[in-house]
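Are you able to produce any protein sequence you like plus the matching backbone structure tokens because I've never seen that pairing?
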Amino acid sequence: MSETCRPAWDWTSFRLAAQEFWRNIFNVNIA
């Protein structure tokens, strides 16, 4: 139960995944 204290790399990978996710959505909308 380490929900409150996640490692920094986990947050970074989450942000990178979110950026790729939104980038794909915007590419589909723009195309």
